[in-house]
Amino acid sequence: MKLNEIRDNEGASKNRMRVGRGIGSGKGKTGGRGVKGQKSRTGVSIKGFEGGQMPLHRRLPKRGFNKPNAIELNEVNLGRIQQAVEAGKLDQANPVTNEALVAAGVISKPRDGVKILGVGELKAKLTFQVAGASKSAVEAIEKAGGSVTLLGAVAQA
């Protein structure tokens, strides 16, 4: 087989149907749109319209609420922090803060802070200054000889 011999399998692609090109084509005159009415015209889309009946998306009740001043945190697992320490991106001498994690490439945006989660294993002795930490994360950090300082009004959970 040569590059100039490569082609689709037989019947793999169909030619485009050209509508509205004379009655003899089988798709002429109305072009497959039926006759008359709004939907036979061009540029019509009636999404969600139910003939005047109240549409489904308006019959159903509204649910939920987006808090306008919600605190948006980055969630980082201990395993990911250990990877950064082993790669030499996080310095064990300096405290682990939001800015340090951004500089190390562990998180991309600083947002409102960092919450440490307990998935993975931490072997390095680190000092954390973060907005939040799970109970399992705090236990694992203290077991490794480190400490956690919680900043701001984010509750420990």
UniProtKB/TrEMBL annotation:
One of its GO terms (biological process) is translation. Residues 21-35 have a biased composition (Gly residues). Residues 1-66 are annotated as: Disordered. GO terms for molecular function: rRNA binding; structural constituent of ribosome. It comes from the Bacteria. Residues 75-149 form the Large ribosomal subunit protein uL15/eL18 domain. Residues 1-13 have a biased composition (Basic and acidic residues). Pfam families: Ribosomal_L27A. Keywords: Ribonucleoprotein, Ribosomal protein, RNA-binding, rRNA-binding. GO terms for cellular component: cytosolic large ribosomal subunit. SUPFAM superfamilies: Ribosomal proteins L15p and L18e (SSF52080). InterPro entries: Ribosomal_uL15, Ribosomal_uL15/eL18, Ribosomal_uL15/eL18_sf, Ribosomal_uL15_bac-type, Ribosomal_uL15_CS. Residues 56-65 have a biased composition (Basic residues). Binds to the 23S rRNA. Part of the 50S ribosomal subunit. Belongs to the universal ribosomal protein uL15 family. This is Large ribosomal subunit protein uL15. It comes from Microvirga subterranea.
